[in-house]
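Pasting two entries for a bug report.
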Amino acid sequence: MAELDQTAFARDLVADVLATAEAEHSTTPETFTRRVLEDLEQAGIVSNTFTAYHKSHGVEVHGYGWNESTDSLDLFVTDFRLSPLEEKLTKALSESLFRRLLTFVRRCEKGLRQHIDESSDVYDMCSTVEKAIAEVQHIRLFLFTNCVSTSPAPAPTELDGIPVTYETWDLRRIHRHASSGTLSEPIVVTFAPPLTCLAAPSTEPDYSVVLAVTPGQLLAELYGEHGPRLLELNVRSFLQARGSVNRGIRATLLDAPGRFLAYNNGITATASQVDFVHDGDGRPVGISRVHGLQIVNGGQTTASLHHAWKRDKADLSQVRVQMKLSVVDPERLAEIVPKISEYSNTQNKVTLVDFSSNHEYHVAIQRITRTLWAPALDGSGQETHWFYERARGQYADDLAKRSSAQQRQFRLLWPTRQKFTKSDLAKFVHSWEQLPHLVSRGAQKNFGEFMIRLQSNLPHVDTRYCQRLVAKAILFKAVDRVAAAHGAGSHKSLVTTYTVARLSQAVDRRIDLDRIWREQQVSAVLESALHELCPKVMTAVTTPLRGNHVGEWAKQIGCWDAVSRVRWVVPAALAAELADLPLQDVAVANDGGVPTGDVAEVLEVSPEEWTAIERWAKETRSLEPWQRQLASTVGRRLAAGEEIGEAQAAQAIHVRNEAMRVGFSPAYDV
């Protein structure tokens, strides 16, 4: 890492945090915390994060997270400096901040929430932490700082028998990941004693295969330590490893652990380097260490081993798992790993190539946006580009390749405010498509759902599509500023996505995105309407039903049901600006131009049956109100010959399946 690069990064980071904090009317530590957490969540290191600041005698905390995959409670504390290059994070301060976090946990355990205003974000945080302490298997304490730390994080400890680990994310670590193109540090595993293996001959210099049998206990512990990070290159880890244990795997682990090797297909893994133990003839016969371990097929097996070990207290001492380990040159990971995962997962139509940065959809958006000139906003005539970061770190890499003078020109043509990532894209699109509950589940989970939907309804990516995509980004950012102005605080991200969704619903997706692209901003009329709509949405989002916390409430379809019923009349001035027809993305047709996926399944059901579902549900009260309404809407649109969108079709199929599960029959009064 070049010192000059780190210096420039530190200065840019402070400038960016200061500008964002001012725009969002928040503090710099809060803004810095959210920025780091967004990166960590996208990398799968944390999930379900919530920011709230509390400080009292001996206590300081900036937020928490509850990682369902690893049953861990995460607490965050931040040390942000305006002059990070002139100061260091000392060992004494680091230990003090970690002690403050741990004291916060102890006080929550003793009922700290009773002394906190129930309407505050801190109360929600204290309540959740108090509940989590009785359930989690692991506590992780994170210290975020934009200074350089002078000491490593403390060694692991325990709190009432619960393991406690400590992580410091300082300037060097944050910069290293921002400039390397990947957030997660490579996972290194040491085998003691070495793992017996069979190395297969290879004719390619940058690729080889090793076969081995791995202890099940080791895999369970690895998943407990690294969670989804171990499965980052495995699309199925995102789609299937959600805390549930495969019944067949669980039954074998509990009833016949010694037969697991015979019954299970094993795992397929990749590594960037393997350290071998050799015999007297120089042949590799054992694995002593693996660098950059990733499981690309077998995520369900790995997660199930962990859950059976932790939740069922299963004895894994007799469990063995076969492993095919592919050693791949790091420079060829993007090329080879998707194919390994695709061909290893033939039993599932969702493949890694659809989830990776190399998917044709993402490649097309990058290609077009790189050459797409955005009209000048300030009247200067200086057109710019929007930078789509298809792979993490592309912007920093492109910048680093240039001289100082070229970097200034680059920033002029590609301003950082016009950079967006894959997770941002999924957030913009899902908000517009009225799926705010998915967005509220976090960047990683939302992106996974986005790729699933993309699989069955791939849009045609051309210049117009990319222009409208950027317009959705501009709209989302405008709503985000409005939400900040109305005091959304730590709930701003939730309020923003729900406001965009409610607006899209109210105008039937007839916002003139082409005009937003041409003007590179929303109109004064639209902004005025947003100021009227946003507070109404915020009230619905921050008033959860049935005792839920706001963060959990926003993840539920019931929250969208409540927001979709918020009373709001489109102002006449905005109505005059709307397009004549809803703006729909053009899908890539199959060979016969016939609808596929959920849309095709919806079309197979008659309009009369959809209407019958609505009547039956109303009479029996067997479905939620929003589900009855959706069935009625689909029936009406089909009867009128109108198109059904993919998102709506997916929800409709879910409603029909649920109706049939609880007693509806297609023969009902059709």
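Entry 2 (this is the one that rendered wrong in the viewer):
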Amino acid sequence: MRADQQSGTGPATSTRAAPANKAEALADWTDGRLGIYALSKSNLRKIFPDHWSFMLGEICLYTFVIIILTGVWLTLFFVPSMGEVVYEGPYVPLKGIRMSEAYASTLNISFEIRGGLLIRQIHHWSAIVFVAGMFAHMMRVFFTGAFRKPRELNWLFGAGLLILGMFDGFMGYSLPDDLLSGTGIRFMEGAILAVPIVGSYFEMFVFGGQFPGAIIIPRLFTVHILLIPGIMLGLLTAHLILVFYHKHTQFAGPGRTNENVVGMPLMPVYMAKAGGFFFLVFGVVSAMAAIATVNPIWAYGPYRPDQVSTDAQPDWYMGFSEGLIRIMPGWEIGLWGHTLVMGVFLPLMIFPLVLVAIWSYPFLEGWITGDKREHHIADRPRNAPVRTAFGAAWISLYLVLLAAGGNDLLATHFHLSINAITNAARIGFFVGPVIVFVITKRWCLGLQRRDKEKVLHGRETGVIKRLQHGEFVEVHAPLPQDRLYTLTSHDQPQPVVLPPEVDENGVARKVSLWKRARAKLSRGFYGEGAQIAKPTAEEHQEISSGHGHH
């Protein structure tokens, strides 16, 4: 070796061939400073499982990108001001009407800027699909148990994204300052004022004075385009990093275990499919925006505090909060010279309790089962009957409240009594989830029995055979090994068993109320009547080799 190389002071020789072109030379330059070759080698060949339900998360990601792109474009023309102007634009029905600059600039985007209305529609439809995609994605994660260890934190990030997306959507459609969105802000103001003691102070903080004030639109604009999107971008990045780190869940099947992933590599297969799917999502959202009008603010007119628009409905994802208000009786309690508006305050308190329940469920189920293992195999919903029943009951409650939030529309469109609809929703609020829970649980148990029957007796072939004594039976064909594995590879946790009431010395044991509650919940989740025992290999061998198997 040369002396200059030994001392480390001279130029080191390289056995690598010279760059073939400028792109390769740029890549070499970047690698020398960031180490992209080693990073790419370890990550670009990462395997991702392939299942249609995983596209729900991709829809969320792509619509978020579309929201950002269209939102940046809209900020170039939107004026977030409540200063009054007289409209002199091309929309004749509103000529000469006094309105805020925010509303006038939105009309300007819609009617005077080339492509402005289409971009507005794409932005709004993307927000609707974004929240719908997150809702469906979280339900997929919930029903398949993909929130279990080690993904509890990712569940929290996903739930945070859903909640922030809902609030950011509310602020977004409030910005035009039209009569419909102003009614929604008035709804928010009423909820704030219903908070005892601090409600009026909080209203002054949010609105900068009495409703509607002169700064609410600029404040909503700042929060809508900077604060919440920034937090969401951070949560989304953390969410994707954890998905990449923990690896994606996969459904049970031959060769699939908790220690491996069966699927396609990120590069080039998954990236090519993801890129194509992004443009497909963008195209579908654009087609929806071009065909179906959403939030036609010109039909509502500018906001005035003394007016309320007819058919005032929020976007679907805030409909349940509207439903909570509408089904709640208008109770008021006089206390120490103050009035507690329970008809608004109680629904306002139910909302965060629901969010806490959503966030805490993975930890609740983990505590009930006592399971500390990592889970990378997704459950079939039927194999977790109680969890699936809880999810279905929650969805039914959401639908009941969504219908209650549109009780006036249901009354006018179907010629029904609005009081009858409201009372039915009140009953459904308490009874509906219970009925759905029972039906869903029994449905799951029935599907488990069907799977067990398939494993033990095989599938029906449609071939009828006559036995020697004259009986007609249908011939069953044994299931292939891969199907047998899929139907029998799931876990069946056993309920927690309390220790005997007395120890070996005859001394009564002290069992805390906390442990007793855990054991009772565990029996409800995994005890008798909550799951059907899987067929054993001995049962399968006995039936398949016996004379009674056809």
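Dev reply: Rendering is fixed now. As a check, the viewer should reflect this: The two ends are 80 Å apart (CA to CA).
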